[in-house]
Amino acid sequence: MQGDLLAQLDGMLVVSCQAESRMPLDAPEHIAAIARSVILGGAAGVRIEGVANIDAVRRRTGVPIIGLIKARRADTEIYITPTLANVASIIEAGADIVALDATNRPRPTDLEAMFGAIAAKGRLSMGDVSTLDEGKRAIDAGASLISTTMAGYTPYSNQQRGPDFQLMGQLAGAGLPFVAEGRIWTPQEAVRCFELGARFIVVGGAITRPDAITRGFVDLVASWSADPQLKRNKS
Ligand SMILES: CC(=O)N[C@H](C=O)[C@@H](O)[C@H](O)[C@H](O)COP(=O)(O)O
């Protein structure tokens, strides 16, 4: 069953359907509608945050769900699925794969216990990492897969605007089963991830965040309007 699930996702596009809290799309029925839309477009799976959203998407779709809970806490910087209680809720809500922060920062529960609890329930786990060392450590601790999700979001990882292709090359070189995720904004970048050895890719904002997509257009339009040279070249 787990092998089937991975075979279903191999070489495919998974779309992360998330809305920041208090954004207009931040409601389970909206997230489910986005999920159904991206599936119509060919997404092989979805990545969904929060119990109510996972539940709403599970009821309306049959594709694999990567589930996570974002929970900010005062005692740790880990915010993607920090606790065993989060793992239990995600599985209860119907996720097939549980994603969690697998960076080397101090955490409430150790990685072996987190990945062990997911495996004990017959689900796959995805360790969200930011460096090669974290990828190795997550696989050693029992992760089914690792994802480049956290690259650029820890102070010690590569800080850049685009996807972390360097990290992908390192993970592939070490023979680790990795998923490419984080700041993939164009189909060309998506193809590059596969060329570097990604099992599958996860794209979020470029597809499911209308505010961020609009901002990209607005910024370009604004710089064109403000630049007399560009305007002159046009006329
Ligand atoms: C770092 C972090 O918290 N990443 C989150 C993980 O679930 C999401 O906010 C991202 O949207 C997701 O990883 C997809 O990435 P992008 O939206 O860049 O395609």
From TrEMBL:
As recorded in UniProt, coiled-coil segments are: none
Please name the Pfam families in this protein's record.
Answer: NanE (PF04131)
Record key words, sorted: Carbohydrate metabolism, Isomerase
Could you tell me which InterPro entries the record lists for this protein? Aldolase_TIM, NanE, RibuloseP-bd_barrel
- What reaction(s) does this enzyme catalyze? an N-acyl-D-glucosamine 6-phosphate = an N-acyl-D-mannosamine 6-phosphate
Give the transmembrane ranges.
Answer: none
The record's Gene3D superfamilies line, in alphabetical order, gives: Aldolase class I
Q: What is its EC number?
A: 5.1.3.9
Q: In which pathway does it act?
A: Amino-sugar metabolism; N-acetylneuraminate degradation; D-fructose 6-phosphate from N-acetylneuraminate: step 3/5
Function recorded in the entry: Converts N-acetylmannosamine-6-phosphate (ManNAc-6-P) to N-acetylglucosamine-6-phosphate (GlcNAc-6-P).
**Family the UniProt entry places it in:** Belongs to the NanE family.
Which named protein is this?
Putative N-acetylmannosamine-6-phosphate 2-epimerase
What species does this protein belong to?
Mesorhizobium opportunistum
